[in-house]
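## Example pair
The file below holds two records. Each record gives the amino-acid sequence first, followed by its structure token line.
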Amino acid sequence: MGRELTERSETLLKTLVAMHIRDGSPVGSQTLREEAGLSVSPATVRNVMSDLEERGFLHSPHTSAGRVPTAQGYRFFVDSLLQVTDEPDPSAFDSIRKELNPDRNTADLVQSASTMLSSITSQAGVVTVPKPTQQPLRQVEFLPLSGDRVLVILVINQREVQNRIIHTQRVFSDEELRAAAAQINQRYAGQALADVQERVEQELLSARNSLDNYLSATLDLAQQALAEEARPSDYLIVGESRLLEGASPEELARLRELFSTLESKRDLSHLLERCSEADGVKIFIGEEAGSQIFGDYSLITAPYGDGARSLGVLGVIGPTRMAYDRVIPIVDVTSRMLSAALGQ
């Protein structure tokens, strides 16, 4: 990045970024000088702004005499100049704590986390959905329906209940289904669904080779019960409309491209998956998110889990001029509270 910034340059850059976050307008030298409260001449401020522009921290939009921060300028601001508190303001803290009630199931908690992030930050909230295969199997039950149809009731991770209907190769009696469920629960309860699926496949092959018809039928039921159905979305996004508020016609065009990218889920899914494996809050400014579509937007994320494993990541998508000092602690505390709720 070349030579380090002087204290005066840092002060003016910090002030300019804060003004742009607050007002969203290019900042002129005279206004910046007054806002920063420095006893320097207007010419000195102009020279500093020119230097910051040459170094890639600022740029002049169109023919405006004022300047706005670049993604590089925001990155330096976040990394070197920003002061962030450990906790959000008390009202936000209380809202998050009340909403993320440990008595609620995982799906409700994840949805609430995304909604809370959007509501409190006035940006778009995003949360990845935990993969079912990461969760431990608690219990399975089979209920006979008409013909070869069987209702499967899966209890996962102490609180999740999933219902699905499977079609069996033959008709099972109530007693057979109860016995099959009891055997499956005895063999696999407490193990992660992914591990159970793998064991069932291996043991089913072995049972068929040994001509153990009873065990084969039981394992076949288990395999169908645990087969991956159409999964929910990789992640939930709430509050995209908040990004539209106050957007200029030029920004609206970029937002449409961003929404199209978010809808396809490809680029963001890969990024969020990497974030879930990292520790603590991560901040991606502009194209750091891996796509040119994010040029004018930032993504702030933090992973969440249940105390034993990482389950996903949550965060906020908003313009690069978002109030980072407020949003970062909200994302951080939401991830910690969601993890605490899931851990209970």
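Second record, same layout:
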Amino acid sequence: MTAFDPRALRDAFGCFMTGVTVVTTTGPAGEPVGFTANSFSSVSLDPPLLLVSIGRSSRNFAHFVNAGGFAVNVLAEGQKEVSSTFARPVEDRFADVEWHAGPAGSPVIAGASAWFDCTLWQTVEAGDHVILLGEIRGFSASHEPGLGYYRGAYITPAATAAQLPAGPDVVISAIVEAAGQVLLLDDDAGRLSLPEARVGRDGVRPALEKLLASVAPGAASGEIYAVYEGEAEGRQHIAFRCAATSPEASRGAFIPLETACLKAVGDPATRSMLDRLATETRLGNYGVYFGSHAEGQVTRK
């Protein structure tokens, strides 16, 4: 077997941008236990399976391998302190964390972007780790942007947006979703389009919030869904997914997020992006697109 420098290998793994989770279960006396992990992945829709891995050196190793189940809590961008707490050797990691028991009995952390409560489906030996395969017994997802991790540092959608370019050649668009529908505007020729605006000196987030206030008051400023160069030279587009509590708008109308209903979208790049969103919504597996109006790649979350 080839010998690698463990630190160099860890740094190379860190080049893959991930989300941050806290994995939880209960100990033999019913006490909550948990640890921070970014080794989380969806596995199957039928049956609904996911996986995480745990190191054999973890003080919680025996609890998770012998427990009947576990929960994966996908942390929101405002929960960096929660992540840090569960990554440190703290005696009671749950002392300052609000939580409740999920449908399968494992601790679910309040305010998480999403959570999945599972029964243990299978364990797989994997070197100095063991892979825990869980069958999902209950889950919940909010529109809170998730906390990210890249090259040893936390990243957040808000911070990412703050670093994006601003100016008259940057256009933002709002993909406002409610009840399986998306908000679209129409012109005199019957062509549909997303609400959009140029970015001014205040930056990306203020421009997005102002745009949402003009078309769908109450819609939440969401996460980045696509960043791409437009057909016009020098024009950059940034699209955000934004959640509305109901399909009501002061401009435009909500239409079903289905490929057949999106044929009237005039801009090919926008139509392609919404077709992708329709597919990802059915699968429950979203990504972020980077590229041009014609070609690029999707990075899965």
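Notes on the second record: Residues 6-154 form a domain with the Pnp Oxidase; Chain A fold (CATH 2.30.110.10). The first helix runs from residue 6 to 13.
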